[in-house]
Amino acid sequence: MYTVREIADALGAEAAGAVDLTITEAAEPQDAGPDALAMAMSPKYAEALSAGTARVALVWEGADWQGMGLDAAIFVVRPRLAMGGVTRMLDPGQREAPGIHPSAVIDPTAVIEQNVTIGPLAVVGPNAVIGAGSLIGAHCFIGADVTIGVDANLREMVSIGARVSIGDRFRAQPGARVAADGFSYVTAETSGVENARKTLGDQGETETQPWLRIHSLGSVRIGNDVEIGANCTIDNGTIRDTVIGNGTKLDNQVHIGHNCRIGDDCLLCGQTGLSGSVDVGNNVVLGGQCGVADNLFIGDRVIAGGGTKILSNVPAGRVVMGYPAVKMDTHTEMYKAQRRLPRLMRDLDALKKAVFK
Predict the structure, then answer these.
(1) Active site residue 258
(2) What is the pLDDT of residues 29-61, one digit of tens each?
(3) From the candidates 101, 215, 255, 258, which is the catalytic residue?
(4) CB–CB of 266/248 below 8 Å?
(5) Spatial separation of the C-alpha atoms in residues 129 and 148, rounded to whole Å
(6) Euclidean distance between the first and final Cα of the chain, in Å?
(7) How many CB atoms lie within 10 A of CB 36?
């Protein structure tokens, strides 16, 4: 529970009215009760306040909070930034029991630092190090020689393979897998796939052959303040490590192939997939279901719209979209031209008739 004043101070925001009122939860304006903070951060939510019984709301600058029947208000400039602060304060977590559950299996050579919580049926392998203040959820697996920094938060069934190095404040959602084997195979003789790649179409007179495994000798290195979503998969490197930079966030079901190197503060949205050996710069945003072919480079501050398929290098600062990826404004013009095709074909037919006559 927090007072209105405490929440405003934490957000660096101004408050007015009965600032000693206590808040226990956040809610949509129409659903907010008397102890809730109504999230009414733009004028379009003002009318919805009358459907609830909130006494306090997070409102936009200059809002007539008294006219909306509120006892107190907190004024914010950047609503989503304020949302981050409020949700962080009011997040009840998963309510895990502190300490190490008796059913957890912890190798005697593992190092568990102070104030670590380990849930039921979790496994911690030999020589693993779990940083202070970390939470390892139920059924998690931490492999041999793994190092995890302070204040990690692993939800249930997160799996981390051997020799992974992870920085501080790591967060992983249920089912995430770090350090799976890379998808690397080769044939004894030149394959049809190799020929097709060289010729861009012709696989030649090749024979059917079995695929031989290339083992993953590298591992995964993850920086500080990284978050990975549910059912993400990050593959080991073949020789060098796969690398995820500081502050990077991966959405649910994102796949990072072997040998990829991702910079700092990137956002990779749901179902995005990177093939092997992709280098991604800093502050890159890849929208949902983006795909990146192998051995490519994506420069700093690139933004790719949802569904983009990147088949060639992308220079720094470019905004791209489409399949294959092109500049977003070029893609928009191409889409408009495509929509005009039926009309252009009708005009062409009319012109042909006129000429023939």
Answers:
(1) yes
(2) 999 999 999 999 989 888 888 888 999 999 999
(3) 258
(4) yes
(5) 6
(6) 84
(7) 22
